[in-house]
Amino acid sequence: MAQIALDDDLIERKFTDNFTYLQEKVSRITDIVDILIEKRVINLHDRPKFLNVNKSQKEKVDDVLQEVMTKKKFNEFIFALMKTGQSTVIEILTLDNTEFCAFIGSPKQEAVSTSTKTVNELETELKQQAHKIVKLEAEKKKLQQDINHLKDVQQGVRRTIEEKTSRIELLQKENIEKNKLVKDVQQGVRRMIEEKTSLIELLEKENIEKNKLVKDVQQLQHDLNSSNKEIKMKTEYIEKLEKLYTDAVEQTKFVNKQIKENTKERQKDREEREMDRKHREQRDQELNTKMELMLNSIAQLKIDKDENKTTGTKKTTLDPLKNKASNLRKKKI
Q1: pTM of the entire structure?
Q2: Which of 94, 83, 76 is closest to 15 using CA atoms?
Q3: Rounded to an integer, what distance in angstroms lies between the CA atom of residue 37 and that of residue 61?
Q4: 105 has a pLDDT exceeding 50
Q5: Distance from chain centroid for Cα 91
Q6: What are the structural domain ranges in the chain?
Q7: What are φ and ψ of residue 248, in 5° steps?
Q8: CB 232 within 8 A of CB 124
Q9: Cβ atoms of 185 and 199 closer than 8 Å
């Protein structure tokens, strides 16, 4: 497999768009760092910094990706992925029209009949449909990753809402209890006034906190609703992509059927031409045989005539037609 070189702006956009995917899917980071050191992307003395044992796998990958994007050494990184056998990640970063044509190969050029040209056109259309299927699959995979990420975020938002709701309920219970204490203080003796005042101040602080929590919950609820809308839109888009994928597969089947039918018609034409050739050869052979028999008969008659003139006697000659019939019977036997 040869190294694939892409336009820096294009591949940089692909790195940016798929950064989260790369963080999760890139593996064998130690081998990748060693290859990047060989390619002079990373300095040898920086190797411990990128492979620090105290860092998680995701942090190591993130550091390497940031270094590659900073130095714009995308082709060297793809080479490292190729050497470590991470073809799926390479496809995400390099799949476009040029790489697809290189993958499926250029169409063969042959000087053939009109029917063969039609087959070539069908083959080209088949390859275009296959390309469309691959692009739709890649886009579907990207959207599914986004949906999974949004679902994770949604779960975190729900947990936060539940925690803050529990906190609000707890504060409400505390407020009820403290309001009761305030009434008790109001009905108590004068010496409890200071204690009552302190309690009121505490309640005011807690009310401020409660109002803040209510606002946070409202904001989180709004974010949750936005996430649900986005998930719905992307789900509908995936359904459209799946329909396009199904249509493309059906069209591919139809093209394959047309190719088979054209192949059968060409085979039938060849067989008919072969039978015509054999018939012509047989007719030519029969005509040659008849001509040869007629010439022999004429020659024999001339010889007999010359001999009759020389000897003055009438010699019995063989009937040419009878000789021809006799020869034909012998030939059939």
Answers
A1: 0.31
A2: 94
A3: 15
A4: no
A5: 9
A6: 8-94, 118-251, 280-332
A7: -65, -40
A8: no
A9: yes
Is CATH 1.10.443 correct for 118-251?
Answer: no
**Residue type (1 letter), 104:** I
**Residue 15's closest CA among 7, 187, 206?**
7
The hierarchical CATH code for the domain 8-94 is 1.10.533.10
The tens digit of pLDDT for each residue in 42-90 reads: 999 999 999 998 988 989 999 999 999 898 888 999 999 999 998 888 8
Q: How many CB atoms lie within 10 A of CB 74?
A: 21
Task: For the chain, give the secondary structure using H, E and C.
Answer: CCCCCCCHHHHHHHHHHCHHHHHHHCCCHHHHHHHHHHCCCCCHHHHHHHCCCCCCHHHHHHHHHHHHHHHCCHHHHHHHHHHCCCHHHHHHHHCCHHHHHHHHCCCCCCCCCHHHHHHHHHHHHHHHHHHHHHHHHHHHHHHHHHHHHHHHHHHHHHHHHHHHHHHHHHHHHHHHHHHHHHHHHHHCCHHHHHHHHHHHHHHHHHHHHHHHHHHHHHHHHHHHHHHHHHHHHHHHHHHHHHHHHHHHHHHHHHHHHHHHHHHHHHHHHHHHHHHHHHHHHHHHHHHHHHHHHHHHHHHHHHHHHHHHHHHCCCCCCCCHHHHHHHHHHHHHC
Residues 6+ apart with CB under 8 A from 211: none
Count the neighbouring beta carbons within 10 Å of the beta carbon of residue 144: 13
Would the pLDDT of 328 be above 60?
Answer: no
Q: How large is the average pLDDT for residues 260-272?
A: 88
Tokens, residue 332: 């059939």
Amino acid (1-letter code) at residue 57: Q
Q: How far apart are CA 216 and CA 162, in angstroms?
A: 12
Q: What is the pLDDT of residue 100?
A: 38
Q: What are 53's two structure tokens?
A: 């044992």
pLDDT for 326 equals 58
Note the pLDDT tens digit of each residue in 125-180.
666 666 667 777 777 777 788 787 777 777 777 777 778 878 888 888 888 888 88
